[in-house]
Amino acid sequence: MKKFSLIVAVCANGGIGIKGDLPWRLKQELKYFSRMTKKKQDTSKRNAIIMGRKTYFGVPETKRPLPERLNIILTRDPSAHVYPPDVMVCTSMQDALNRLDETPLVDEIENIWIVGGNAVYKEAMQSARCHRIYLTEIKKTFECDAFFPEINSDFQLVKNDEDVPEEIQEENGIQYQYRIYEKMAE
Predict the structure, then answer these.
(1) Which position among 6, 29, 97, 135 bears the catalytic label?
(2) Which residues, in sequence order, are bridge partners of residue 50?
(3) What is the pLDDT of residue 185?
(4) Secondary structure (3-state) at 28
(5) 1 — pLDDT class (breaks 50, 70, 90)
(6) Active site residue: 6, 22, 26, 70, which one?
(7) Smallest Cα–Cα separation from 130: which of 118, 113, 149?
(8) Which tens digit of pLDDT belongs to each residue from 91-108?
(9) Which residues contact 16 (CB under 8 A, 6 or more apart)?
(10) How far apart are CA 136 and CA 9, in angstroms?
(11) Is 30 part of the annotated catalytic residue set?
């Protein structure tokens, strides 16, 4: 059973979105998200990204499904929307993880990323399979209607991977910093 990581950008008030969209425009941060969720060691494999239905439909139509990754959508009602054939639709996080553990997917997928939204993040953080949270700390407050769950003491801040900058980034007058939290063994 593969572990998974979360990736998220969070502003100073804990917000992650508003009206199904991001409250900020940070092109370099989006490139970081793309690079991290596509990064793999074995070129014959690909990564999976798991997201809720609202997060999926929050991605601009021209950009979804997100390329070069297996897009897995969590929804309680799979028949309510039409999804592209190359998207996997699951009714729960456990359903998605079970399917990723089966052949042939278990051999095709290198990394599993959880990409939102709030309820999906919350459930993922409680899972024994949760390894890390790649969190972009946006040092400004934005109006939001979706928030990231509180990071509890199960997680500790660790040194960034060598390809993740430690220093504060700035774009459009907004400062942000990449952080990595790792779940400590129970």
Answers:
(1) 29
(2) 72, 114
(3) 75
(4) helix
(5) confident
(6) 22
(7) 113
(8) 999 999 999 999 899 999
(9) 8, 9, 10, 116, 117, 118, 144, 146, 147, 148
(10) 4
(11) no
| Burial label, 129 (beta-carbon count in 10 A; 0-12, 13-18, 19+) | middle
pLDDT band at 111 (very low <50, low <70, confident <90, very high): very high
How many CB atoms neighbour CB 35 within 10 A? 11
Are 32 and 178 spatial neighbours (Cβ–Cβ below 8 Å)? yes
Cβ proximity of 116 and 8 under 8 Å: yes
DSSP string over 90-149:
ESSHHHHHHHHHSTTHHHHEEEEEE---HHHHHHHHHSTTEEEEEEEEESS----SEEPP
Give CA–CA dist 159/136, Å, rounded.
Answer: 14
Q: State phi, psi for 143 to the nearest 5 degrees.
A: -70, 130
**Is 70 among the catalytic positions?**
no
Least Cα distance to 180 among 3, 5, 30 occurs for 5
Neighbouring C-alpha atoms within 13 Å toward the C-beta of 26: 25
